[in-house]
Amino acid sequence: MHIRSARFISSNVDVSKCPAGHLPEYAFIGRSNVGKSSLINMLTGCKNLAKTSATPGKTQVINHFLVNENWYLADLPGYGYAKVSQEKRQQFASMIENYLQRRSNLVCTFVLIDIRHEPQDNDVHFMNWMIENQLPFSMIFTKADKISATAAKKAVESYKEFLLRHWEEVPPVFISSARTGLGRNEILAYIEQLNSLWKEQNCKKK
Ligand code: GTP
Ligand code: MG
């Protein structure tokens, strides 16, 4: 997919105030500092569209970006950041849960996982919650530039093996690097495919 335009639309804490849900939407979620905002910038080719930071906890609201004037990206706050107070963490969790359960135009959520880490409880817990709530998601392994291509493949295979001990199947998986652009074409092609399906289904409904 060719990106012609990408622009910031709004920041919200309340799902009911998010932009009108007439276009397909994709959310990016994962542990704090995993690289959600950087990946959004890499995919859209706009360096400073989503604010990134070396300090975890940068994104604290739901940020919407409109791409090619016909689909949305939503950048969500990270989970699992220890320095955020218990109360604030609870607020983040309920904001995210509300958003994921109520956003009817949400086509797919991308769960980002740092490729260098073993499966972490909060990621697995979150993905299990998505399954229980019948919410579709795909996985994106980030920061692949930090290890060799062979190590990256191995890490993904062992992560999948871990999941298959508990799950019958693994959702689509991508390997990415915001530094090198690895995974960009594959992720955009996947979104394009889902956009077409979404449009077909929504035309039929009308
Ligand atoms: P929060 O909003 O705080 O939850 O973080 P985030 O998940 O949005 O992460 P962000 O994109 O702000 O990136 C966190 C740090 O990781 C920054 O210092 C980025 O430069 C770095 N980073 C992100 N993606 C990559 C990547 O693919 N490769 C490398 N080497 N560094 C990355
Ligand atoms: Mg962020």
Question: What does this molecule look like?
Answer:
By secondary structure, this protein is of the alpha/beta class. It has one domain: Rossmann fold. It is built from five helices and seven strands. A seven-stranded mixed sheet has the order 1-3-4-2-5-6-7, sandwiched between helices. The longest helix has 22 residues, at 184-205. The mean pLDDT is 92. The structure holds guanosine-5'-triphosphate and magnesium ion. The site of guanosine-5'-triphosphate (GTP) has 23 residues, from helix 1.
Q: Class by helix and strand content?
A: alpha/beta
Q: Whole-number average pLDDT?
A: 92
Q: How many helices in DSSP terms?
A: 5
Our measurement of the CA-to-CA distance between the termini, rounded to an integer number of angstroms, reads 26 Å
Q: Per the principal axes of the C-alpha atoms, what is the gross shape?
A: globular
Largest sheet: 7 strands, mixed
Bound molecules: guanosine-5'-triphosphate, magnesium ion
Can you describe this structure in just a few lines?
With 206 residues, the chain is of the alpha/beta class. It is built from five helices and seven strands.
Map the helices and strands.
Elements (H helix, E strand, L loop, with lengths): L5 E7 L12 E6 L5 H9 L17 E6 L3 E5 L10 H17 L3 E9 L6 H12 L4 E6 L6 H16 L8 E3 L8 H22 L1
The protein binds guanosine-5'-triphosphate (GTP) and magnesium ion.
Magnesium ion (MG) binds next to α1.
